[in-house]
Amino acid sequence: MKTHNFTHLILVLILFLNACNIKKQDSKENSSKSLSYEIAYSSKETGDAEIYLTDDKAKSKTRITNRSGRDGYIAWSPDGTRIASYGYYDGGNTWSIHTMNHDGTNLKRLTHAKNKWDSSPAWSPDGKK
Questions:
Q1: Alpha carbons 73 and 119: distance in angstroms, whole number
Q2: Is residue 114 one of the residues assigned to a domain?
Q3: How many domains does the chain have?
Q4: 25, 77, 86, 121: which is deepest, by most CB within 10 A?
Q5: Which family does it belong to (predicted)?
């Protein structure tokens, strides 16, 4: 029983860390080069899990996905310009990996295997894959 609880705790921690993926940015508004952060997260605010962006002060949020199904497991590209995530199809039987620009444009589905769960995308160090 203790092993099951520990495994559950680890899974919840991994899901939380993936859902709250953070990208550091240089602020162009301040000549002293202060840092700001753009945070990508997945939320069911509209019913389906969609991906949102917010700043480190949570002053604003922008939904960058808008499709039926769930989107999550967010991974920023090393240069901070693109996001990889998963989304599901077929009523949750097929989970596929997607990439998009950091603002949600140029969404591309990369995996198409039916009845498979492709999840937890990660970028290569150079961001090309």
A1: 7
A2: no
A3: 1
A4: 86
A5: Belongs to the TolB family.
